[in-house]
Every structure is written in C-alpha cells, then in structure tokens.
Amino acid sequence: MRALAAEGRTVFLSSHLMSETSQTADQLLVIGRGRIIAAGPVQQVIDSVAGGAVGVRSPRTGELAAALAADGATVTSPEAGMLEASGTTAEHVGEVAFRNGLLLHELSPRRASLEEAYLSLTQDAVEYRAHTTPTTSRTEKAQNQ
Q: How far apart are the first and last CA of the chain?
C-alpha cells in the first residue's frame, strides 16, 4: 500500500484493525452513523481525543501530585508510588518536580493508541451493542442434573 501511495496514488482502506491502520495510514477518516466524526493525520486524531499522559514514579508522590494539580494538571495514582498526569508534558512535570525539590525515579510520556482514540470517538455512534446474558457453566449444569 505504501508503494502505491509513493507512486502518487490514493489508497482507501477500511479496517477494524487499528494497530495495522496506525502503521499504514497517513490520514484517517472516522465515520459513525453516516457522519464524519474525525478526520486528519493519524497522530492528530489520536491527540485530539485522548491526548497523552505522563507516568511519574517518585518517593514523594503526595507532594508532587499537589504541585502538579496546582499547576493545572489532572493527576491520578494508579498504584502506590506512581502518578499519572494528564494535561501536561513530561518536560513540564520534570520542571515542577525540580522547582519543588522532588526526586523522580521515572518520568515517561504515554501516548494513547489509535484503538483507544477510536473507541472514544465512536462510543456515542454505535448502533448495536453486545448484551451479555447470564450463562450457566458446565459445572453448574452437572450439579443440577
């Protein structure tokens, strides 16, 4: 496909495989219920929905969380000693930590995947949803016989 595009041809691809799409497409057009939901370069579409986050590991997460929140970031703590900050960059988190004399053990930018962005974009455009129904396991069936 890339070879065809390199020849100046336009290649349209419709796929539900987001990992492959993110590796082969330059531009995306996301359609839901007959309407264009998003269009643009792959990374721009991802960033417009999911943005990014910064993973931070520090022995002083409480102080760092307060400093980042005061600076406008949204901070969550997925596990002890770990923070996830959104609405900011890794560089800015490092600067805030430095200004406050806080030690960092890890500072890693995290980008959302195309799959995450796609699911977020289309969550209100889904016509059919899977409904789970109660099932009986083999063990329960054997016990009831």
A: 57
